[in-house]
Amino acid sequence: MSDAPLTLRSGAETLAAPFPPLLAEAEHLASTVLVGDHGRRRAGLGDTFWQYRPAQNHDEMRSIDWRRSARSDAQFVQDKEWQIAQSILLWVDQGASMSFTSLKDGTTKVSRARTLALATAILLLRGGERVGLTGNLLPPRRGETQVAQIAQLLSEDHESDFAAPDARGMLPHSRALFVSDFMGDLTQIEAAMGKAADADVRGALVQILDPAEEAFPFDGRTIFESMSGTLRHETLKAGDLRARYLDRLAERKDRLATLARTCGWQFHTHHTDASATSALLWTYTALERRI
User: Fold this and answer.
1) Distant-in-sequence, close-in-space partners of 271: CB < 8 Å, separation ≥ 6
2) pLDDT tens digit string along 106-145?
3) CA 244, 186, 204 angle in degrees (round to 5)?
4) Which residues on neighbouring strands pair with residue 38, listed in sequence order?
5) What pTM did the predictor assign?
6) 287 near 177, Cβ under 8 Å?
7) Could you give the 3-state DSSP secondary structure of residue 252?
8) What is the Cα–Cα distance from 103 to 107, expressed in whole angstroms?
9) CA atoms of 218 and 244, how far apart (whole Å)
10) Which residues of 86-97 are buried (b: 16+ CB within 10 A; e: fewer)?
11) Sign of the C-alpha dihedral, residues 120, 122, 123, 129?
12) Residue 64 has what DSSP assignment?
């Protein structure tokens, strides 16, 4: 009897192992955020009543709600809730640099990034939006099945130290979320953001950093090595590098913030030792905001 079925099953079980924990953690994180009325609630096309507002000069007479207006000296119009689903595309950096952690609980940048992105997707999908992944990996769709597919694709690691977002598949006038440590070549990020801006795509950049990367708590003899092992630097006076490192980190953050503003995006830095709930609330709000 061939061993192929057993080998295939073993491989499938190994591949699927990360999905349940990631889904469970993302579902738990999503449940901690009370978003209230869905953020898509704004005036627009639809049949669902949202609110009364005072009539303005551009409103047609037929749009006046005369029953509500009769109760006051002003004229009122019914605003309907915007009911056109939006498309949101996610990109999560799964390069080797994202597997770094200095925390005792072992929380890596990539585990936080995956959980944050998937929890955001869950909230958006529950709100009726369509969510997918950039690079034509997964077209934006609705439904619980989409959550499982996103979780599967977000669980795939890459061998290179740094990854770059793939702007393919971005729909005009849609939104996007890029989650990364943004420690790689920023020109690749700028190129992707430029393509997004050309398509009138707005969104959010979330930078995930380990607290050690923010504080640079190194001194004396230290060996710095990339997570893939391809880069290595040894110094006897690591403390002497702190000021230069922090200056360059600040410059990188400023460059990212400027890039986001220029393209009409939001920028936020989150540390892996901080509350994931606060990061999720910021991300969800940023994607719901009409910029």
Assistant:
1) 208, 209, 210, 211, 214
2) 999 999 999 999 999 999 998 888 999 999 889 999 888 8
3) 110
4) none
5) 0.76
6) yes
7) helix
8) 6
9) 13
10) bbbbbbbbbbbb
11) positive
12) B
Distance CA 22, CA 154 (A): 9
Distance CA 36, CA 102 (A): 35
CB 113 within 8 Å of CB 98:
yes
Token pair in block for residue 16: 């699927």
- Rounded CA separation 123/35 (Å): 9
Task: Tell me the CB-side half-sphere exposure of residue 166, using CA atoms within 13 A.
Answer: 10
Joined tokens for residue 60: 């047609």
- Give the C-alpha separation, 163 to 92, whole Å: 9
Instruction: Tell me how far apart the alpha carbons of residues 279 and 124 are, in angstroms, rounded to a whole number.
Output: 15
DSSP secondary structure letters along 124-148: HHHTT-EEEETTTTEEEE-SHHHHH
Among candidate residues 21, 191, 154, 164, the one with its CA nearest the CA of residue 97: 164
The answer to whether residues 161 and 188 touch, using CB atoms and an 8 Å cutoff, is: no
Q: How far apart are CA 268 and CA 224, in angstroms?
A: 26
CA nearest 98: which of 181, 175, 170? 181
Best CA proximity match to 67, nearest among 86, 82, 52: 52
Place of tokens 């707005």: 202
> How many C-beta atoms lie closer than 10 Å to residue 61's C-beta?
8
Matching residue, tokens 């030792």:
273
Summarised one tens digit per residue, pLDDT across range 182-230 is 999 999 999 999 999 999 999 999 999 999 999 999 999 988 888 877 8
pLDDT tens digits along 238-269: 889 999 999 999 999 999 999 999 999 999 99
Q: What are the CA-CA distances from residue 78 to residues 169, 182, 205 (Å)?
A: 37, 45, 36
